[in-house]
Amino acid sequence: MNHIFSVVVHKEKKYYVAECPETGTISQGKTIEEAIKNLKEATELYLEEFPTKKTSKPFVSFFEVTSHAKTSKTIRA
């Protein structure tokens, strides 16, 4: 049985990190494709040990927050 999972990818220094939110599995690679390929393998191994029940189709959304960082004022004498 095939399952569809979502993946979140971000870059950390020299590597791309891929994470599957539904299973909590994480992997990395030098390219996005390699990171996702490694994540797929890690997730398959994880599911062999911890099978999931029926999963729903992933939903991804985005949101925006306002930064409240205070800027420092330079005082010149």
Description:
By secondary structure, the chain is an alpha+beta fold. It has a domain of 42 residues. A 3-stranded antiparallel sheet has the order 1-2-3, covered by helices on one side. Strand 2 and strand 3 form a beta hairpin. The chain is elongated and about 70 Å long.
Brief account:
The protein has 77 residues and is of the alpha+beta class. Helix content is 23%, strand content 21%. The chain has a domain at 8-49.
Number of strands: 3
Main pleated sheet: 3 strands, antiparallel
Strand content: 15-25%
Strands of the largest sheet, in order across it?
A: 1-2-3
Radius of gyration: 19 Å
* Overall spatial form: elongated
H/E element sequence: EEEH
Straight-line distance between termini:
72 Å
Mean pLDDT: 89
Structural class: alpha+beta
Q: Helical amount among residues, as a percent range?
A: 10-25%
Low-confidence stretches: none
Number of helices: 1
Question: How is this fold's topology laid out?
Answer:
Elements: E1 8-12, E2 15-20, E3 25-29, H1 32-49
Antiparallel strand pairs: 1-2, 2-3
Short descriptors:
21% strand, 77 residues, three-stranded antiparallel β-sheet, alpha+beta
